[in-house]
Amino acid sequence: MKKPIRMTVVVERPYYGGDYIAIRAEPVYIENGETRYFSDSWGDPNRGLYKLTVAAQANLRDDSEPYGWDKGAVYRDIHEVSLVQAEQMIKTLRKIDRSLNKIKDELGYASSYGQQLARVGKILGVTSYGFEPTNGEATWATDERWQWVQANMIDSYVGSHLTRLRKAAGVIV
């Protein structure tokens, strides 16, 4: 049975440093109140979502917008792949690519990471997008790690996370 799909969006400085901020969104589902990532288990109708990512970067040292998000979706951190898994990945990527082209023909190019993520999310049937609260605390009302928002709020939340990280780095006073 297909599970309702959400996406978590993480905005952080890579652990190995650098003057950039990594942004990545990954499909998840909620089970027994827990946020879980999809697996590549046999028979799982959502197995094409395992390790699927919509990523971008932003410069740490200036106030520029995120870049590199125009690839649509990619698979990240895959260390070994069987033929069956590769075929499922190709099927998922082709579906996303085909649908993004149709949306582009209708609406034009996406002009931000949030727009691109919302488009990929619409293709996958995503219902909401989770961000870690910018104050670093769990969401007090639900004791969840994620604050869930609709697609129209993605750019705003990404922006507030970029500002927080730039302030912490001393770029913004």
Question: In words, what does this structure look like?
Answer:
This protein is an alpha+beta fold and 173 residues long. The chain has one domain. Helix content is 30%, strand content 25%. The protein contains three helices and seven strands, in the order E-E-E-E-E-H-H-E-E-H. The protein has helices spanning 83-107, 113-124, 154-168, and strands at residues 5-12, 20-31, 34-37, 52-59, 74-75, 126-131, 147-149. Strands 1, 2, 3, 4, 5, 6 and 7 form a seven-stranded mixed sheet that branches. A hairpin with a 7-residue loop joins strand 1 and strand 2. The mean pLDDT is 88.
Overall structural domain count: 1
Please provide the count of β strands.
Answer: 7
Query: How does the helix and strand content classify structurally?
Result: alpha+beta
Counting DSSP H or I runs of 4 or more residues, the number of helices is 3
Largest sheet: 7 strands, mixed
Distance from first to last alpha carbon = 50 Å
Strand content: 15-25%
- Average of pLDDT: 88
Structural Rg: 16 Å
Return the string of H and E elements: EEEEEHHEEH
Determine the fraction of residues in helical runs and give it as a percent range. Answer: 25-40%
Name the overall outline: globular
Indicate the topology.
Blueprint: E1 5-12, E2 20-31, E3 34-37, E4 52-59, E5 74-75, H1 83-107, H2 113-124, E6 126-131, E7 147-149, H3 154-168
Parallel strand pairs: 1-6
Antiparallel strand pairs: 1-2, 2-3, 2-4, 4-5, 6-7
Helix pairs in contact: 1-2, 2-3
